[in-house]
Fold these 4 entries.
Entry 1:
Amino acid sequence: MSVASPAQLTAEVGYMITSELSVLYVGVDIAKDTVVVAAHRPAQLTNPVSLSNDAAGYVRLQALVSDWQTAAGCASTHLVMEPTGGYEARLAYYAHAQGWRVSLVNPSQVRDWIRGLARRAKTDCLDAALLARFGAERHPAPWQPPAAEWTALQQLLARREDYLQMVQAERNRAAIFALLPHGTDRVRDSLHATTQHLAEALVAIESAIDDLFHQHPPMQQQAERLDTIPGVGPKTIPPLLALCARLYAQSNGQGTAKQLTALAGLDPQVYQSGTSVQRSGRISKKGDPVLRRTLYMASLGGTRGRNPLSDFYRHLVARGKPKKLALIACARKILVWAWAVFTSQQPFDPAKAASRGA
């Protein structure tokens, strides 16, 4: 179903392609039940089309892309979309199977880019068109589907966090209920039974995570290599590995340690203008808060004893840095080392880290 004319959308987006392209860039705005697609091709912006977010819609999209490619004389297709909590997964895998390039771009980067265009209006059609333009201008890195075991690890870790939160919530309810002067036995028994059930389910998830590592030797070997990093242990390894695998897939293996720290929300944000405006630096906190807490606790443990992380921490404190800031810097350092170990497939080398000033 067409939802706007090409002329209207071209004027609205404020952009016209005039040069010949070898790649057809298709922007995709994802919702639970629908997707809106638009493409940039030489000399015009295609008419955005709304499709169902299911197999029938994907078949229709394949036909549209084929027509657009033929009309534009493009050799290949590059789909650009934003992650939307899982709604994009089926289409991403389908598109990759068709031989199209797929990019799952950071929504905050796209928003900042759109803000630079002085855009104010927001519709699904505009979002699709702007994503296509973003792809044509920025050429985002292609996404590669992660191996099944890495997807399973991410799902298990997400479910483990669900159970942890539910267990804590039930324990809090039980603690409050215990203070009531006339607590009903039926409610007390229900709280106890639910807490027990959730605790058992949590144990089962933990066991499934352990089994996953044992069933996949390459994953187990990656875990053992990460275990050589100061501060990294059994609680830190699974989420750290999942984060590294996520960046590796999103960037087609071309990611950097800086991007990894940004995914975790540990990237510094500096605010300074001239000589009179200078705020203290902070981390962005735009990533996973659970992972940040885990890394912070890992830095607490890793700075004890004698190792490169401890030396790095003491060096920062000796320079007058607050201890909390130094620990956050250590958490970021763990991420940098983890990415180096993950990509090189070599254990952590303390001598090399010491030679580089940790």
Entry 2:
Amino acid sequence: MAILEDTHWRDAARTPRFYFMDAYSAIPLLFLFLHISLTTFLVCVMVMVFFIALEKFKFTLPVFFRWLKASIAGPMRTARPWWRQ
């Protein structure tokens, strides 16, 4: 299958990258530039480390939240809510 020059839509699902990290982890840098302080710097570093750790485990943010919700809910799910049983 030949790659045509007008098929740029195929790259629409790729994760945006900012050099070596996910571009979403660079968003806290905006807050750092708007309010420069040690606390903001530490929060930005923690958020960036969180995103880098997610990328290391091959998670995206929506997948991580689905995994977290399933972990909190537990293995047993009822078909009816507890208040109608």
Entry 3:
Amino acid sequence: MKFRPRRSVLYMPGSNARAIEKARTLPADCVILDLEDSVAPDAKAAARTQVSQAVTAGGFGTREVVVRVNGLDTEWWHEDLEMIASAKSEFSKAQSTKPQAILVPKISRPDELKRVDQELANMRADPDIRVWAMMESPLAMLNARDIAAVAQNPQATQARLAAFVMGTNDLAKDTRARIIPGRAPMLPWLMTCVAAARAYGIDIIDGVYNDLGNPAGFTEECVQARDLGFDGKTLIHPNQIEACNAVFAPNAEEVAQARKVIDAFERPENKDRGVIALDGRMVERLHADMARRTVAIADAIELMRAGP
């Protein structure tokens, strides 16, 4: 069982060279080099060039590198995709980092993702590059199941969809729902997207937390997201990384208990049993599957800490 940790997913403006350089040293699991919201219209071309140079140069270590392109309703998105696709030969020659994923904003219908898949196929983009979809509109909430199903589209040349990313600020704007502690107005939408993601085997990353002056509130929202089933959270500042990583990582006690459950089911006398007694509790084989995932995540995190 192999996992890539996606606990902390940090947005960095593609137009800010210092921010990109800093991203190479931060303990975030993933870095999103942004060409969309954080880049002014007259800076789009320069930011695209800068991001291309940054990913070609490499130096991001074990961090997953994601490029957020502009929306499909803009004049820039196609050139963004071309930049990523055409960089393939440079990545190969330099044996350096390539973007592991493209984050596409404002996805509301499955056909939009299929269009991106087809464009990448036409461009002969590296088949290993995944697509992440931002879920940030009312229509996206209504279509979450069909959008997630693109990950298993048998007609696709290359099924690239690997993750949902919640765009909670845009979702609040379009629905007029208030962003309040506990996020009660958003819980139905958050859980709809979690269910859709899990049904089709993709990861799901929670939206950002806006109040940088409230670290306790941020930690509480990370805990909520973890308990709801999210794999991690998008971040807007490096100061949020440490708390986010801690919340979304299994702690030592959880890992020890998981190993105990696995060991119990691997004993010869329990090999064919669906339920066993362990420490006074009834434990089912499904708990062993969950335990293996916990251990796999912990091992993957340790591997990242060790570096390349």
Entry 4:
Amino acid sequence: MPQPTHETGAAAPAPPAGLLALITGFMPARVVHAAAELGLADLLAQGANTAMGLARETGAHAPSLHRLLRALASLGLVDEVETGRFALTALGAQLRRDLPGSQRNLALMFGGERSWRCWGALLHSIRTGEAAMQHVYGMGSFDYLAAHPAAAVVFNEAMAEITRAVARAVAAAYDFSRFRRIVDVGGGNGTLLAAILAAAPELRGIVFDRPAGNAEAPRLLAAAGLAERAEAIAGDFFQAVPQGADAYILKSVIHDWDDEESVAILKSCRTAIADGGRLLLVERVMPERMKASPAHQHMAMLDMNMLALPGGRERTEADYRALFEAARFALKRVLPLPEGGGLSLIEAAPV
């Protein structure tokens, strides 16, 4: 029963629900990460099983694994089809290694030690403006990945998982057939470029990234039948990007960097771009004013992740306009991608 207040004797209103769920929000993330690390989705894809059976496959402690499975059942990733026996659900299947649309590497990346430690130092970033990654590890995110190949594999696959989900939306939202050659700057394994080239059969393209970033691109492009129309070139986009293309696209690149570094990347593109060309960014566009909504919460949490790890930021349309002006581009339009998970296509032209 509500208790009377000391001041008036009236019943105190019940506190709004939901704060405890926010306070303990890290717990489901760690449960999902543990399931991804153990490969439970792949094992359960073979059929329902018990904690004892799965423990033999994973080397885990069976009673503790049973408790993890119950937690996964509470989240809807598995179904306890009979007492002590668990089956994979459609939601949990997204943690499989071999399933189209898999998000296993995202679970490994966001729930892994690097993200965990950097988010643990978030307050340092808020107090100082320094990326927690630099504070905790003494190096930037991309230097860390260059020094830790296993982490780089997870990161690259996680980025490919995100890109696969939006590549078709990008290709459908914009007429790429107007261009002769496009460079996907920071294009990773070529997932986005492959979708664009499939939608524009006369277009040729380049995947440009660090050597560790685009190492898998030739294989993916060849498998897509695009080896004659696309190539992978390695380099540093702070120094230069391939010259003379009439379109440069950067997906989820600029949000990794602070304003000074972002302008440097855009200036590399401005130096290289052909007359009349177009610069295309695929990024989230932060609202000018935040509201309490799932969409705004998602963007705000990603912005906090940019602060904690690479030291970048999510930006508003006005922020992007200012970056473009500093690099001698003019913002032309922002196209929200209906199936793009909150991403937009931002078009700019050289001036």
